[in-house]
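The methods section describes the discrete structure representation at length, but only in general terms. The central task, working out the structure tokens from the amino acid sequence alone, is never made concrete. Nothing conveys this as quickly as seeing an actual entry. For illustration, here is how one protein appears when written out as sequence plus structure tokens:
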Amino acid sequence: MTNPVIGPAESSQVMTTATDALIDERALSKLKWRCRRGLLENDLFIERFFQRYEATLTERQAEGLRVLMELADNDLMDLLMARKEPEGDLQRPDVLEVLGLLRTR
């Protein structure tokens, strides 16, 4: 049996499909644990995010959220309150998408 050759267009489609896959329950549980913060205000944003989107959270969105969770609490709060915009390594499509969802009232 031969394997089909995947061209560049098909390869990007496979990659997109993989990152658009829903996050599994175990990974979601670990992500929620990772998202616990020291500032109540951050926790409120994150809690609302999970209430709205946990059933449809994709791998790509989960990665964007993980990147945001690497920030210090005050830096995260500045982004959530739109006092600052993402710069440098944070200017990624996954981070920008999740930040937009977190900011939605």
